[in-house]
Amino acid sequence: MSINNLTIHETKEALKEGKFSTEELVDSYIDHIEKIDPKVDAFLLKCLDRAKDQAKKIDSEKQNDTCSLSGIPYALKDNICTKGIKTTAASKMLYNFIPPYNADVYERLNSMNSIMLGKVNMDEFAMGSSTENSAFKVTKNPWDLSTVPGGSSGGSAVAVASDMAAFALGTDTGGSIRQPASLCGVVGLKPTYGLVSRFGLIAFASSLDQIGTFAKDVEDTAIILNAIAGHDPKDSTSLDLPKKDYTDQLKNGTKELTIGILKNYKAEGVQEEVQTAMDDAIAAYKSMGAKVVEVDFRYFKQALAAYYIIACAEASSNLARYDGVRYGFRAKDYTDYIDMYYKTRSEGFGSEVKRRIMLGTYALSSGYYDAYYKKAMQVRTVIINEYKKIFDQCDVLLTPTSATTAFKIGEKMNDPLQMYMSDTFTVPINIAGIPAISIPAELDHKGLPIGLQIVGPVLGEEKILQAAWALEKHFDFRKNQPNL
Amino acid sequence: MEYEVVVGMEIHAELLTKTKIFCSCPTKFGDPENTHTCPICLGMPGVLPVLNKSVVKYAVRAGLALNCKIANFSKMDRKNYFYPDLPKAYQTSQYDRPLCLGGTVNINVNGKTKPIGITRIHIEEDAGKLLHESSDGTLVDVNRCGVPLIEIVSEPDIRGPEEARIFAEKVRNTLEYTGVSDCKMEEGSIRFDVNVSVREKGSKELGTRTEMKNLNSFRALERAIKYESKRQIIELKKGHSIVQETRKWDDVKGISSAMRSKEDAQDYRYFPEPDLVPIVISDDEIKKAKDQLPEMPEAKKERYMAEYNLPEYDANLITSTKETARFFESTVNLCNHPKQVANWLMVDIPAHLKEKDLTMDTIPFSPEDLAELINLIQDGTISGKIAKSVMEKMFDEEGSPKEIVEKHNWAQMQDTGELKSIIEKIVQDNPKSVSDIAAGNKKAYGFLTGQVMKATKGKANPQLANKIIREVVSKKIDE
Amino acid sequence: MSISNEEVTYVSKLARLRFNEEETNKMAEELGSVLDYVATLNEVDTKDIQPTEHILPVSNVFRDDVVGTPLSNDVALSNAPDQENGCFKVPRVLD
Lengths: 484, 479, 95
Fold this sequence. Notes:
The structure holds 3 protein chains of 3 kinds. Chain A is of the alpha/beta class.
C-alpha cells in the first residue's frame, strides 16, 4: 500500500510515528498526480510547487502535529475561491479570474496548515451530474475510464477515489457531492444548510448550495467536518452554534438507532444490484441491533420539479453578474454595450448553464412567478414537513444515493431531463436543507461502485456519521481499489 | 374644462451610515473613482452580503419621523436588470414586505395643513456612476454601489407643482432633522422622482402618468411639474392621449422630453433574496426608537412660538433647518432676546451666507459671538447700524464682536459732555433748523440728528443724541 | 406544456442571451419538456401553505457599521477586461 492510499487518520498516525515526513507525503501525491491525472483529468490547476514549499515549511517548523489536518494534502473544487489562485467554476466566463479574496473554508484549511494540491474539475457553475459540462475537460471515472465520475463535483470525487488527494472539498446543490461520491466509491457528505460558510463559494443556487467533503472513510469525513464547520459572520445564513467534535459519537454503534427505509424507493428506477446493496445494508443494521422501520416519502417527482424551478430561478439571478464588465471573459467585436452583454454571455456560458438560466428567468418572469416559483417554494414547505414526519419515526433514513451506477460518457448529454432524473434521491435533501452522507457499499457486475445515502434531520450530522461508520465497517469497501 | 394636476413622488435618500449597506466599504463622497470597493460591492463571484445594522436603525427612524407603521417582519428581495452601473445585475431592495408602511406628512399650503400619504419606505442599495469622459467609451465607478438608500413612496395626494415642492422640502427637512441623511442635493444624496398626471377637476379616476427622474433642485422639481402638467393638458385638449413613459427634464431649456425607451420591457423578476435573512423588529424596539426621535420641526415651531413668543412666520423659518434651529437655541440661551436673534438669523446671516457661499454648517462664528453682538446693542455700546458692520467683519473672521468694535473704534460716544458740545456747535451752525422747529416743523430734528451722526461718524448713541438735541434746541428757542 | 419561440426570445432578452433559430427551436423544445415535468407540482395541494423562503429560522443577522479596508484601485481593477483612468471601461452607454 502506498502512502497516498492512506486515510487522514492513518496518515496522521504515520506522520506522528515519523514513518515519513510531510515533504515525502506530498512528493508521493505529486508523483501520483503526475502519473494518474493524465488518465482521469481531474485537475484544472495544479499547485504542486506551492504544495511542496508548504510541506517543507511544515517539516522545518515541526507543525505537523499542531492539528488534525496539518500537512494533509487535499483538492479543492474550482468554484471555491482562492486568493491569488485562478478560480474558474469550470466556465469560459471565468477562464482567467483570479479572486482577491479567499473562501471561508479555504481560509480555515489554510489556518490548519492543510496543503492544497490544486483546483479540480466540475460541471460548469456546478450545473450537471456528470462533470461533462466543464468548459475545459471531461473527467473520467477511475473505475472505468469510459464512464462519468458523476457531478457536479466530479473532479473532487476522482481526486480522492484515485488517491491523488487525501480528501477534497466539493459543493452540493442537488446531489453534487453525494452522487459523484457514490459513482466513484468514496464517502461524500453534504452538511446541513448553514453549517459550513458559503462565503467564497461561487453561487449556483444560494438557498440550496452547501460545501461538503469527499473522503476515503467516515472517520476522515468527521475530521474534515470539524475543520470546515462553524459560524462565519460574512455569511448571513451561516449558523451560529457551539463548536462540536464530530468524531465523538462516531463509534457508538447502532444499537440505539432507528433506521428508516422508504416504502416506495424501488419505484424510482433503481438498478437491481443497488436494491441488493440496500437489502444487505438493512440486514446488517438489523444484525447490529438497530431498529429498522418503513417510512413514507411521497414527493420524489415534485421535489425534483421544485428543485429545478428554485435552483434555476436563483441561478438566473446569481449568474447575471457575468457581463464582461469587471472581470472574466468579454467577447470581441461587439457593436455597443448591450451587444457586448449578449455576446459575452452567449459565448461565455455553456449550453447547460444557458438552459438553466432560461428556465429560471422564465419561472420568475412576469405572469409566471406564482405558477412556478411561488408554487415551488410552497412545495418546498410540504417536503420539509414530510421529512419532519419521517424523522419523528426514525433517527436516520437509508436510501440509495443514485438509482444506478456510473453511466457512459455522452450517454445522457442529449437528454437534459434524463440527466436531471439521476438526482432523484439526492435533490429532496437539499430542498429540505438537511444533511446526508453517501458511503460506498459494493461493486456492481461491471465493477462500478454502488453508494448508499444516509439522511438525517437538521443538524443530524452526528447521527448520520454514526450510522455510516457502522455500515462502512460492514461493507469494508476499501478492499476494492480502482485499477489505474 | 378645468384640470387638476396629480403628483406622486418617489424620494431616494442616502443614509448617513459610515459604511455601505452590505459591506464595510466607506460611503464617503468625492474620493477618487473605485477606491471604495471590495469583492462584495464589486459583485465578484461567491461573495455574500451582510446587512448593516445602522441602515435598519436609520430607516426605522425615518419611518417614525414620517409617521409610518414599522413592520414587525420585513425582508429583502432582488430586483433583476442589467446595467453597467449595477455589478450584480440585481439591486437588493425590498418588494412586498418593506420596512415601513402607511405614513403621513402634513404640509402647509396657503396657511392650511394638508396631509400627504406615505405609501411605504424601503431600504435598498445605490448603483454606481457612469462617467462619460472617455473618448471611446463609458467609464464605470463602483464607489457609490452599495451606498444605503431609503426609497420613500408617496400616495398621489399632491396637487400641483407648489404642493410638490413644499412636500419635498418637508421630507428633506425631516430626514435632515432626524440625522438620517445629509440630504445634499448637489451631491445626489437626496433625489426626487415625480409621477405627474392630470384629470378633469372632480374626477375620481387618475389620468395616465409620466415619470420624471432625478430632479436635482426644488426649483427644478416645481418647474418640471409645471411644464409637464401643462404639456399634458395641451395634449388632452388636442384630443391626444397621454403616453405612459419616463421623461427627461432639461433644467436649462426648461422642457421635458420622452426618453429613448429601453430595449426591453421592464420585467424585474423580483424574488426573495436568499443570501439575506428577514428583519424582525419587536414593538418594544419600535417604541424605543420612537422615544429616541429628536424633536420634529413642527413640534419645535410650536414650542418656539409658546416659549419665545416668536411670530409663526419667524418660528417657521428658524425651524426649517436643523442647524438654524440649533444656532437659534444656543444663542437665545446666552442672551435673552429671542426676537432679535431670530431677526439676525432670518435676514443678515442668510444674506452673508449666500454671498460667501457658506451654510449654517460652515458659518465662521459661534452662537456665543452672536449673543455678544446682541448684548453690545442692548447695552448701548453700539448702534443697530454699526452692528451690521460688525456682522460683516465677523464673516471676515476679524474676531469677536467686542474685538471688532474695539479695533475699529466703533463704540458709541457715551460721554454726555463731549456729545453736548458737538451738538451745541451744530445747533449754532444751523439756525434755519431751529427756526423751522420753532415754527412746528419737527422734521428738522431728523436733519440735526443726521448732522450729529455725521460729525461723530455714527458713534453717537442715537437716543442720547436725540435727547440732547431736544434740550439744546428748546433752550435755543427759549432764548 | 409547450413554450413558444416568441416566449423563448422574450426570456432570452431578459437574460441577455442570444440564440439563433435552430437554438431557439431546441430551447423551446427542451424547456417545454422540463416544464411538462414541472407540472407535477400541481399534484400537491398547497392551499394555505406558506412558501419557504429560508430553510432555517434565522433572522436579524447584522453587521456593525464599522469601516473596513477597501481594495486598492489596482486590485479592484486587476481582473478588468478593459479599463481607463482607474475605472472599468465599457462601450459607450447613452442615457
